[in-house]
Amino acid sequence: MTDLHTRTHAVLGTTRLILHALLWACAVVLLGLTAYRVHYTKRLNHNDILTSSHHFYDPVIVELIVTSCLVIIGSLWTISTLVKRRVKGTAWGFPSFAGEAIYVWVVWVMFLVGASITTHRWLHLKWCRGHHKECRILETIKGFSWICYGLASFILMYAIAEWLLMEYERSTAPPPTYPETRTAQPEPVAAPAATETTYTEVRASNEPPVVGTTASNEPPVRTTAAAPAATETTYTEVRAREEPPVGTAAV
């Protein structure tokens, strides 16, 4: 990991930490506003300026209460994880990153639904917000709903950016090297090469002399014997050539 990547991770982590802290604070404010709205409508005994119902509650307000509670718990967990990461200097693990991504995506959808329905239902309240507290509360709920949605959008965007950066580092990182601890196995000793030596032995054959005779009564004439024929014998000797032993070395 280069210094540029390290600084980029630090900037992204710090930005997400700040955004989660802001989202947690806005969720606390939104929880208080929506709780007041539910308390007001459940104890309503007379006609309201916006409705003629009594003892009721708005489902979208309850949905925002649930979303705010989820954000308060999830942001605390994410903030603690990011702080531990910065203190220990450890990398962002997959389970923690996946948990944060799923949590942010869920609250992003819930805030989008809640803010859209609230805005559609109480779109124009300018005519009553100057004289009635209930209208001002609903206007504030709409505003904080969209603020929380925007913060969740930025958190999700920064989380995706850091995930893409980690994937790029993983794909371009060189393969890890490990120290060699194995012991080299001795190579099998091949059979010694054989040397072949050929000897040729030549021996004279012992043949008796040839004596010639004539038909008349002349004394026998000894003829000169020819040179004895030579016999050639070939011997082949095969010897094994001695080679020095091959030693083994530990790697």
Helix proportion of residues, in percent?
Answer: 40-55%
Structural class: mainly alpha
Strand line-up of the largest beta sheet = 1-4
Number of helices: 4
Poorly predicted regions are 210-216
Quantity of strands, as a count: 4
Mean pLDDT: 76
Note the gap between the termini: 30 Å
Spatial shape: rod-shaped
Short overview:
The chain has 251 residues and is mainly alpha-helical. It has a domain at 3-172.
Q: Could you explain the architecture of this structure?
A:
Residues 183-194, 223-236 have a biased composition (Low complexity). The chain crosses the membrane at residues 17-39, 60-82, 102-123, 144-166. Residues 175-194, 204-251 are annotated as: Disordered. 55% of the residues lie in helices and 10% in strands. The chain has 251 residues and is mainly alpha-helical. The protein has a domain at 3-172. The strands form two sheets. It has a two-stranded antiparallel ribbon with strand order 1-4. Helix 1 runs antiparallel to helix 2, helix 1 (3-42) packs antiparallel against helix 4 and helix 3 (94-121) packs antiparallel against helix 4. The chain is rod-shaped and about 145 Å long. Residues 210-216 have low confidence and may be disordered.
Write the layout of secondary structure elements.
Blueprint lengths: L2 H40 L16 H30 L5 H28 L11 H40 L21 E11 L6 E2 L8 E2 L7 E11 L11
Antiparallel strand pairs: 1-4, 2-3
